[in-house]
Amino acid sequence: MRLPLLLAPLVLVGASLSLTVSGALAQAASARISQPTVGIVTPSGNISCAAYIDRYATVMRCTIHRTAGPDLPRPKRVQGCDWTGGRVFSLGRRGPARRIAPCDALSDPRPQRLAYGTSWRHGPFRCLSSRLALLCTNATGNGVLLSYERQRVF
């Protein structure tokens, strides 16, 4: 059973944690937290997105693994994190998307392959795949347009 995100930092810093839960309660908890992150990947494998939705957070991140242009310079405010060259984009439930330098990973180990010409929807997020680009938007119509040649947030 996966740990809830709120408990994960306790394990990472070496704190011990013991919980006694009845079998039925454990099954219910497992079902509730078993798959909060779902993802997609383009047929080329160059762009992948993962959406995380629970009662505390709603976020989708997309990563473009290869681009035609050079990486962006590392921002001064990014310290102690792996710099991805500005190839990670974040989109919330509402409002504009932004380019980020995450210190954590948000991914789906078994993302759905999104065929060209098809769409995907999860919560407030919708993505449309084409041979030219991947377009993902949120509830307010803001989003990202990602391709090998160009990456745009709006």
Structural overview:
- The protein has 154 residues and is mostly beta strands.
- The chain has two domains: 1-34, no CATH class; 36-153, no CATH class.
- The protein has helices at 8-12, 23-33, and strands spanning 37-41, 47-53, 58-64, 88-92, 98-100, 112-113, 119-122, 125-129, 134-137, 143-146, 151-153.
- The protein has a six-stranded mixed sheet with strand order 5-4-3-2-1-6, with no helix packed on it. A five-stranded antiparallel sheet has the order 7-8-9-10-11, with no helix packed on it.
- The radius of gyration is 17 Å and the shape is globular.
- The termini are far apart.
- The model is unreliable at 1-34 (pLDDT under 50).
Helix-strand layout with pairing:
Layout: H1 8-12, H2 23-33, E1 37-41, E2 47-53, E3 58-64, E4 88-92, E5 98-100, E6 112-113, E7 119-122, E8 125-129, E9 134-137, E10 143-146, E11 151-153
Parallel strand pairs: 1-6
Antiparallel strand pairs: 1-2, 2-3, 3-4, 4-5, 7-8, 8-9, 9-10, 10-11
Q: How many angstroms separate the termini?
A: 38 Å
The quaternary structure here is single chain
Integer average pLDDT: 78
Number of domains: 2
Strand order in the sheet with the most strands: 5-4-3-2-1-6
Number of strands: 11
> What percent of residues are in strands?
25-35%
Helix-residue proportion = 10-25%
Structural class: mainly beta
Q: Specify the biggest β-sheet.
A: 6 strands, mixed
For the CA atoms, what is the radius of gyration? Answer: 17 Å
The tally of helices reads 2
- Provide the low-confidence segments as ranges: 1-34
Shape: globular
Helices and strands, in order, run as HHEEEEEEEEEEE
